[in-house]
Amino acid sequence: MSDGMLPADQRLRRQTFAVLGLAAILAIVAMICFHYWLLDLGTAPGNDLLIFRLRRMIGVALTGSALCLALLAWHAAHKASRIRNLRQWPLPGTRVIRDTPIRRDTAALSVGRQLNAIAILLLALAFALGYISWQMLR
After folding, report:
1. What does pTM read for this prediction?
2. How far is Cα of residue 109 from the mean position of the Cα atoms in its chain?
3. What does each C-alpha distance from 112 to 25, 88, 89, 101, 109 come to in angstroms?
4. Is the pLDDT of residue 42 over 80?
């Protein structure tokens, strides 16, 4: 590998694929459980209880999504500030899942600006989801 290239970490790649596979399996199990919960709830007499519980479930899910988006926005902004200070991307000490060219100075600052823009977008989406979940839960 040349000095301008950060080599891939094979162990990190295997771990990433394992976690993604496990997450996919857990998502399928959660969908199946939700399906059975919804079928059980749908057999109850009257629609009022169904609508109330669904609004509450959607509100809770949107609140969780808003929190996740806010954490991702913080992470992106934090990485952008480190890029601005160190003027390098990927940051020193980073492990990557594929061979990645090291960007310095202007190219790295461009990545930092993109991460800041993404952080602003994610934060705006988090606030929008928070507002929608507040409307659902009240």
Report:
1. 0.81
2. 23
3. 34, 9, 8, 15, 5
4. no
